[in-house]
Specification:
Length: about 240
Amino acid sequence: MNRHLKELIVLAKNDQAIDSYLPQIEAAQKKITKAQKRVEVVQEEIDTLQNAIQENEAKVRAFEEQIRVLKQQLDSNAKKTKEISTEREMQALSLEEDLAKEKLSFANNEISRLQKINETKKSLIEETAKRLEEAQHAFVAIGEVVESEKVEIEKSKSELFIKRQELSKNIEQKILAFYEKIRNWAGNTAVVSVKKQACYGCYMKVNDKTYAEVIKAEEIINCPHCGRILYIDQETLV
């Protein structure tokens, strides 16, 4: 086999090993993101409950102010009763008093209802706060595990990068530049094997002449369809 081709195959496999760590890093990051999302979701539940409580408390204050005004109105009406001289005035005042009492009763009932709702929501906040604490602990624990995983991954990658530098030094610059040019668009499939007379980069069948040249491996051969560098393992010959 051509020496340059051998060198490129080894380099390509090393590059594939480097690239194989990317999914591992992404998977590790997904664990962190998922755990963080759990924390955010539970925190949003608490925020929603707290906002609802605040809104209800504002309504309660509004009803309490309404009650204060209505009581003043009833007190004022009580004083007016002494000054009333006609039946018509008495009926009008009585109607006004009944309406005020109706509003007063409604306001008191609403305050009671809203306070009960808030009590329920406060209980829910306590329960949700426990879930939040659990989610936060899980997030920290997962973060520590993932950080450890990343350290190991980076260590392995560093070793492969060092090996890549050593391999690159031994490859003729022109050959290396040719490989890097293909790798820019083909990624870690810049050098691929031929199986059943097909390029395992684009999966297109190569003609007999090209296939024969790949088998000889006396030169670096490119796929006539996609341009990837081709090689063949003897055991794959059919």
